[in-house]
Write a structure and sequence with these properties.
mainly alpha, 10 helices, 0% strand, globular, binds NADPH dihydro-nicotinamide-adenine-dinucleotide phosphate, binds zinc ion
């Protein structure tokens, strides 16, 4: 398959899996976030690696839908499945432990996963600015920005464009929401 065909296939697979799900603003279709992450990588980060872009399209399928790693491995191969594994929190752990582990795991993540992690945090920061989760007070938004910055600190140095994209998104969040 061409790069375009693989990414289209992964986005279509993700659209089916996330069908009916909304983001925490309780209005946006979940797939909008997935598309935003692929776009940030391809357009802003100029990433053209097929496995990274396909994994970005699939990055929340195991965590947030009934999809299994085996299913992804069979359809998209072991490299994509491995990136998705790196993007998937263990939901049996308490939320704060999961947050701490994301910070810890970022430093040793693969180059592909580091780029997807940065793009994911950029998309979420932009959403908190423009389409915020309902009922999040200012303090919780600020808490998220500070934590995202810690995760991204461990991902820096593999794609300068994405590092700068994150810094610009964080600066905009500071300007429009509040400082941390
Ligand atoms: P988060 O606080 O981590 O929620 C943010 C996540 O939701 C994002 O990473 C994103 O993940 C997803 N998301 C969905 N819609 C949006 C949107 N519109 N904008 C931005 N992100 C969106 O997750 P939890 O609700 O599970 O809470 C976990 C943590 O929050 C715990 O550490 C807990 O202690 C803390 N907490 C803090 C509170 C406070 O008031 N300070 C209150 C309650 C909990 P993805 O990319 O995977 O979709
Ligand atoms: Zn995500």
């Amino acid at each position: 398959m061409t790069l375009f065909a693989t990414v289209a296939d992964a986005l279509d697979f993700a659209a089916g899996k996330h069908a009916g799900q909304l983001r925490k603003d309780e209005q946006s279709p979940y797939i909008n976030h997935v598309i935003a992450v692929v776009r940030i990588l391809a357009v802003e980060g100029r990433v053209s690696e097929e496995t990274v872009l396909a994994a970005a399209a699939l990055h929340d399928t195991v965590e947030d839908t009934a999809t299994t790693f085996e299913e992804i491995d069979r359809r998209f191969g072991p490299v994509v499945a491995s990136f998705v594994r790196e993007m998937t929190d263990d939901k049996s752990l308490p939320k704060q432990v999961r947050k701490d582990l994301q910070v810890e795991h970022a430093r040793t993540a693969s180059i592909g996963a580091k780029q997807i992690k940065i793009a994911d945090k950029v998309a979420n920061i932009r959403d908190i600015v423009t389409l915020p989760p309902v009922n999040w007070p200012l303090a919780r938004k600020i808490e998220y920005f500070a934590w995202a910055e810690q995760v991204v600190a461990g991902c820096r140095g593999v794609n300068e464009r994405l590092d700068k994209t994150f810094d610009a998104a964080a600066m905009e969040a500071r300007r429009r929401v509040g400082n941390w």
